[in-house]
Design a protein that fits this description.
The chain has a seven-stranded mixed β-sheet. The chain has a four-stranded antiparallel β-sheet with strand order 1-2-4-3, covered by helices on one side. The longest helix has 16 residues, at about 20-35. The chain contains four helices and 13 strands. Helices cover about 20% and strands about 30% of the residues. Helix 3 crosses helix 4 (about 110-120).
Length: about 210
């Protein structure tokens, strides 16, 4: 059974699981689609993530109890065989400042790190933390590393890093503690476009080495 809890006084958080799992993201995206097709009164917007869906509502139109009832009717009733997005190639220059250190910690050569990272297909699980930041998973076991002990104050937009079993792309310049192994020239966040972010949960990415 889904867990549905208040998130402030204008939102509900629907949690379908606690792990990083494509099937759980499939449930989230199926629920998101169902609510878009038959939008409950007062529902303003939704934000999907790994295994949860944040539902913002207008308290002048509905309340938490009525919205929860509208959402609860889909629990266990959805087709979760979601077709994820087409694979998008992300041109990547593997020259990150932590590449050599990642190679040392994983007992690989820098070329081995590149081969392992680029030889995998990744699912976008979440976009957030900073505008357009793209969380992708899961990394091959051999590349799993903790975040840096001391985060950098400035990480350039386009930087590609790894942390835990995930790889991520910084869409804007921001602080960050991920191990930086490369960068891309793709623009992931543009406030003048609709939507302003390049990727969304359910998209699939492949990092393609470039010189």
């Amino acid at each position: 059974m889904w867990q549905i809890t208040p998130a402030g006084d204008r939102a509900l958080l629907v949690t379908v699981g606690r792990t990083i799992d494509p099937s759980l993201l499939g449930q989230v995206l199926s629920l998101d689609q169902a609510l878009a097709e038959r939008r409950p009164s007062g529902l303003l917007s939704t934000v999907p993530a790994y295994a949860s869906l944040l539902c913002h509502y207008d308290p002048d139109v509905t309340d938490a109890g009525r919205l929860e009832a509208s959402i609860r009717q889909y629990d266990g009733q959805l087709d979760t065989s979601v077709t994820f997005g087409q694979i998008v190639d992300v041109p990547t220059r593997y020259d990150g400042p932590d590449l050599a250190d990642v190679a040392l910690k994983t007992n690989l050569t820098p070329a081995g790190v590149v081969e392992a990272h680029a030889g995998w297909e990744y699912l976008v699980y979440c976009v957030g933390f900073a505008p357009g930041f793209t969380y992708c998973g899961e990394l091959p076991d051999q590349l799993a590393l903790p975040r840096l002990a001391s985060p950098r104050l400035r990480v350039s937009a386009g930087s590609i890093g790894i942390a835990g079993r995930q790889t991520g792309i910084y869409a804007v310049e921001s602080p960050g503690g991920w191990n930086l192994i490369g960068r891309t020239t793709l623009r992931l966040f543009d406030p003048a476009t609709d939507p302003p972010v390049r990727f969304k949960p359910g998209d699939r990415l492949r990092f393609v080495p470039t010189s």
